[in-house]
Automatic annotation (TrEMBL):
Name the record gives this protein: 2-isopropylmalate synthase
Cofactor: Mn(2+)
Pfam families membership: HCS_D2, HMGL-like, LeuA_dimer
Keywords: Acyltransferase, Amino-acid biosynthesis, Branched-chain amino acid biosynthesis, Cytoplasm, Leucine biosynthesis, Manganese, Metal-binding, Transferase
Assigned EC number: 2.3.3.13
Annotated Pyruvate carboxyltransferase domain residues: 22-284
Taxonomic source organism: Dyella dinghuensis
Amino acid sequence: MNPETVNPTDHAEGGDSAEDRVRIFDTTLRDGEQAPGFSMDRRAKLCMAQALETLGVDVLEAGFPQASPDDFAAVDEIARTLRNTTVCALARCQNGDIDTAARALERAHHARIHLFLSTSPLHREHKLGMSKSQVLETAVASIERARKYSADVEFSAEDALRTEPDFLVEVFSAAIAAGATTLNAPDTVGYTTPAEMVELFTYLRKHVRDAHKAVFSAHCHDDLGMAVANSLAAVSAGARQVECTINGIGERAGNAALEEIVMALKVRAPHFGLRTNIDTRKLYPTSRLLTQVTGQAVPRNKAVVGENAFAHESGIHQHGMLKHRGTYEIMRPQDVGIAETTLVLGKHSGRHALRQRLETLGHTFDEAAMEGIFKRFKTLADRKRDIRDEDLEALALGQDPDAIGPWRIDQLNTTSHLGGSASATVKLCHEDGREIGEAAIGDGPVDAVLRAIERATGTDMVLKRFQVRAMSEGGDAQGHAQLTARHAQRDWNGSSVSTDIIEATAHAALAIVNRIERQVSDGPGAARTAQGVSA
Ligand SMILES: CC(=O)SCCNC(=O)CCNC(=O)[C@H](O)C(C)(C)COP(=O)(O)OP(=O)(O)OC[C@H]1O[C@@H](n2cnc3c(N)ncnc32)[C@H](O)[C@@H]1OP(=O)(O)O
Ligand SMILES: CC(C)C(=O)C(=O)O
Ligand SMILES: [Mg+2]
């Protein structure tokens, strides 16, 4: 670390005017990781840190080195690895914390020490047992100590939004005089409204002594669902750094979601007149990576990166989208790294989207035939949540998509050995009267069952995707098995539900075999029949 560097946060800024750029301070690996269920080990943190640097975050808060040896090692490793992003470590206003943070950042290319101390009456009295003057003195002494290690020091007045504004001005003025280069006013408990945010940041920028020497920052929590709105309000009142996390993870209800802030600034650029350094096409991949390393999925309806963010099921919207995508989308999926908009077929869909999908699958119908298919489609969609391409093909070919057979399972046994292979035996019955028993061994019981079914039915399948999801909690939870397998140069899907996940997997695999067999026996002829009614 170099304590002499001037304006270290802006090391990558070149000739840019700081005025129209909002710095993105990512705290996924500190505040995000702090929440129950989101702990990340060193490897996961390093992997995320590299993705965040590629995303283009300006500052990356890598951890709280005093918290644990692993957190220290993670900050150290990230600091050594990242080249362009400023790596930041959190520290209480205590000498031990500051020295530890500085040690963890020793090998950073660009380093920031982030100090925090509560300033609100509630925290002063009940948590810290400190008077106003003790808070002031402690903050100043700590900033001065941190400045000996780094020219880039951020000071956060914890619970700033519940602090007396004149005291906050006093603390921030003293913090600038002591050498702090970024001043953060966190809404630690997510209590504030956007209007209050504007009021406070305007007040601070007007009254803090030498305010121009520091960057003002917002750090908002989502307890009342206003973290993003509050961050944007702060920015509109002059904050030029926002602290946020991927997918909005963080303490309690989380922090402001990075992807939402960045896309709001981009999509509404004429309104805000501000920009960030983020490569927005990396937002979705980074969000996905986080869900993988933490095992915590985002809700389908999550803004920007949720599965439904660019998916449309309702007929009226699908019709609008087919005419002009601007009717129901305010940003392009590609701009956030999602391949394309999807028109999901379900019980809310209409004829336009159904016809379009069928045409993509190679089936063209005249109006009268389409009416019949549409009726059957609606009946099916009332029963089934996911309508897949195979279901549509079955409808197009005049088959019953829910038909079972020709194969069914009569017997199924599996055995597995700890650390060894597994074996499966199946007995399958065909509607033509055949009864076939087969056995196979595999890497695990699922693999063994799939091999046994392949042998018994004589159908080659290359497994491409296998997912088992619990549909409820507890020992008797239903498992939903979903398989995708490759056969004859196309993908086939099968799914099934059972309290026994091996059984669910076997039924899902057999559903694929049955679909393939039905398609082969009815396929070309039926396809011709279906095409035959087209205009
Ligand atoms: C708003 C935020 O997100 S703040 C960051 C919160 N993150 C974390 O707490 C995660 C990491 N924390 C930890 O691993 C542990 O809390 C540690 C290692 C830092 C400290 O552990 P312990 O020494 O056992 O203290 P403990 O956590 O029980 O209590 C906090 C202590 O820090 C003090 N403290 C709290 N904030 C500050 C601060 N900003 N500056 C100085 N002291 C502080 C408290 O008064 C209390 O002091 P005491 O031990 O003298 O009573
Ligand atoms: C450490 C500070 C910035 C914090 O996380 C908060 O106040 O929410
Ligand atoms: Mg926080």
